[in-house]
Structure formats: C-alpha cells, structure tokens
Amino acid sequence: MASSVRCKDLRKLYPGAQEYSLGSESEGVSIEIEEGEIFAIVGPTGCGKTTTLRIIGGFTDATSGTVEIGGRDVTGLRAYQRPTNTVFQSYALFPHLSVISNVEFGLTMERVGRAERKQRASEALDLVGLLHKAQDKPSSLSGGQAQRVALARAIVKRPAVLLLDEPLGALDRKTRQQMQEELVRLKQAVGITFVHVTHDQEEACAIADRIAVMDRGRVAQIEDPVGLFRGPRTSYVASFIDAGTIVRGTARRTGDVVEIDSGDLSVRGECPAWLNGSADVAAVLAPDRVKIARSHAEAAEKGVGTASGTVNRTVFTGSVFEVYVDVSEELEVRSAMTADEVAALGEALSPGSRVDLTWEAKDVMVVEDNLGTATIAEAAGVEG
Q1: In the structure, how many helices (H) and strands (E) does the chain have?
Q2: pTM of the model
Q3: What are the pLDDT digits (tens) for 132-148?
C-alpha cells in the first residue's frame, strides 16, 4: 500500500532547550503511515507525540528532517498550504454561527461558491449523523455532538490526512466509546488517512490499524494492536500498555530459551529472534495467560510455569475480574478471570487466601529490559 505520510529523520530542539523534544543529535524520528489507515501515536506527557503531529500539520517547524504527504515534500509549507486538517480537543466552534455555518467556515474562507458550500457541508453533517442539527447553535449540542460537528468541519475540506489531537479526551466514557466507533465508520466512509494522538492506549487499540508508542522523543515500537499487546519489545512498552506483570532478575540463556529468576519467581520463555544477545531482558506475564489452579497438583499438571502466592484483592474491570496475587513483598502477579472462573473458585479467592498460579512457557513474553538491569548470561550447560 502507498504511503500517505512519510516523516524522515525528524528532530525538534526548541530555542533555549538543552534536550531535543523529538529525536536526538544522533537519530531523528522516522514514520511511514499508509494511505487510508488510522495510525495512533501514544505515550505519556512529554514523549513527543503532539510535537510529531504538529510538525506533520505544519504548526511547528522541525529543526531538521522532512515530511512528505502523498509523495509530495511539504516540509516548507505552512499549515493552510498542506492537504491536512486538524481536530483538537477544544472544539473551537463559533457560538454565534449555526452548526452548518460552522462546518462551512473553511470553505467560505476558500471562497467556494454558496451552493457547493451548502451541499458539501450537508453531506459532511449527514456523514456524522447531525444533518437534523444543521440550523441549531453550538450551545444546544452535547459534548459528543459538538465533537462530531468539529469532525464534519474538518472532513468537509476533503483533506488527504486528518490529524486528531486527543479529540476525545474531554468526553465521558460512553460518549468516547461512541465517538471511537464513529471515527472507524468515518474512515471507512471517506477513505481519509487518520493520524490520532492520544495518551489512552485503550482508545488507540479500539480504533487504530497500527500504533506507535513513543518514549522520550523517539519511537519505541510500531505495531498493530494485537501484535503490540502480544509482542511488546521493551519493558517500557510493556509497562506503558500495561501488558502484564514484568519479572526481572538474573537471566540465563540457552539457545532460544531464556530463564529469568527474580529470587521469588522463575520464568522461562522463548527469546525473540530480533532481541540482541547482549541486551538486558525481562519477562512479561499477560494477565489472561496466568491461571489460578485449585491445587498444587493441578498447577503442576496444567502449566510449565508455576508459583504460589497470597490473594491481595480482586477488581472487576467491567469485562473480567483481575485477581492480584502477592508472590513476594516485591512482586505482584495479575490473573484475568471470567465470572464463571471466579465463581468456581469461590472463597479460594478471598483476600489472604493462598493460591497457586500457572502459565505456559509459550505465553511468556521476553522483552528488552530498558528499565531494569537483568543481563543475559550464556548458560552452555543449562538444559533448554
């Protein structure tokens, strides 16, 4: 598929700053976004995600590097000269104008004829399901409706790329979920490339075809949602997306198998081919892959990996129950369970109860530990 947006070697050093907000002296940020996809950029505050979006949109000049949109170098163009449009968290609707006049505004500035303006604005409002609100004022709209008007105003100009800067952050949970569905539907209807910046990894997974996780001005990993949660490459990525329990300790490698011993828990997993043999490593146990057994015998029978611990608490997330088990004072392991599984164990999951955990070696994710200090030691005599 053709690239819609290509960022090459981007760096941003603000005047007076000692550190780059994006990239570094030795390496810039490079991203390719495919035509027609929803591409999410996630990360904590200050990681560079909004700076990247603003450089793509022409609101911020890069210190170095280039931006191409549709194969055309737009690095030197201002925001209004680029085939992009932006939806911000602040809807910025004009309160004195009707809904349809708000949507028309950009076309009016471009001196598009009145008949064409009305037609395109009506089509855009119809796409977001608000044509019946065309003559209303923004003050009569709910938060979700106002956000949909902002989307209509952005797509009415038919941009090649739509930039979304945390546009759903101010909405309540239910409205946010509805807007996530709306974004996916809009992408399918209009075929525009979406670049979506958010700090919410769940939101990114709900709507994105691919996700870039950023860390201190660099791209830590780009992956589709399933691949990201099933294959984080670093402990930073695993921690940010909350992929599971991170186990650190003495690491020994035999062939393709790595064993990490924290002192309280020993975990074995397959070492990914991309992982440098000299890298520090950690293991990640995803909650849905960790099971709670009824007995030691059942744990030994069901899982290659086992551990014992004390139930700390059980939290209902709205879809599953997450049981937090203290393996030691320093290490807490999470297990995600269905309502039926919780009911079957009953009082065995009460706080303070001793339980046995089990998992399979194939479900252990071995990652580069850029937050810890466990170094792989080649163990020639250790059985794989």
Answers
A1: 10, 22
A2: 0.86
A3: 999 999 999 988 888 88
